[in-house]
Amino acid sequence: MDFADRLLEAQRQKHSPLVLGVDPQLDRPGGPGIPTGTTLARFCCDIIDACAEFVVAVKPQLAFFEARGLEGMAAFVEVLRFAKSRGLIIIADAKRGDIGSTSAAYAEAFLGDGDFGCDAVTVNPYLGSDALAPFVARVRAGRGLFVLVKTSNPSSGEFQDLDAGGRPLWEAVAERVNGWGSDFVGRCGLSSVGAVIGATYPAQAARARTLMPSAIVLAPGFGAQGASAQDAVAAARPDGLGVIVNASRGLMYAARSADESPAGAARRAAAAMRDELNRALSAHRRS
Q1: What angle, rounded to 10 degrees, do the helices at 262-286 and 40-51 form?
Q2: Given phi > 0 = left and psi -120 to 50 = alpha, else beta, which region is 99?
Q3: Quick check: 45 and 22 in contact, CB under 8 A?
Q4: d(CA 10, CA 85)
Q5: Tens of pLDDT along 37-90?
Q6: Does the model's pTM come out above 0.90?
Q7: In sequence order, what are the beta bridge partners of 194?
Q8: Residues 93 and 120: beta-carbon distance below 8 Å
Q9: 95 in active site
Q10: What is the domain class of 3-286 according to CATH?
Q11: Which of 14, 59, 84, 95 is labelled catalytic?
Q12: How far apart are CA 146 and CA 165, in angstroms?
């Protein structure tokens, strides 16, 4: 089964579009970091276990593991193994993209069968088609891609909104994503080549759907970054499909006091977020 069909089947089984972003923040004075009395791997796996009933995928952010050196990457491998054991789809949030030979190595790392192998990966298209070709080739083997198109950060428009022949640059990228994905549309009618569209830009997300009718949109920015559930599902198709919504800090750090269990708080938050997103999708289908 190809990636898009597997993802949609997971959504139907769990009645959820929610993705758990595994972003273990670095330990800093006054920052969240890793709770006292646990390890990086244990903390991440406990949160995954608590949320597994309500999420269709996990999206580990590589930066937070890489920054911790060998310990961090060993924890990353442990997190992947645990998520797989819970039957969860894994999206490596790596944002890779480089010249062809380097991209081929990145594709082998994150979409191969080695220690870091995942079901899908986020990629940066700004080096051009040859940079993404090794990743696209892996889609034929059942893997998935999420191409950065319109990101959720406040300054994304600095480059992504620049005029590109009478339209913003991000729209040109979206049309190219649609072209890459046209060869990989599954039985579900969605492509295994998807796009990252920030939930913080709902108008652009709605526009993106017209440019990429078959793409699965991964929408970060829900919750801690300020986007509402309605914003987060703006890129959904009229049938409510085609969008998955990431939540990171709002789940991993849902506990509001040292006396509250991080896993218990995450589970309650995941259930509430799933229900809120489903209500937004129902409203989207009726509109």
Answers
A1: 40
A2: beta
A3: no
A4: 15
A5: 999 999 999 999 999 999 999 999 999 999 999 999 999 999 999 999 999 999
A6: yes
A7: 146
A8: no
A9: yes
A10: alpha beta
A11: 95
A12: 25
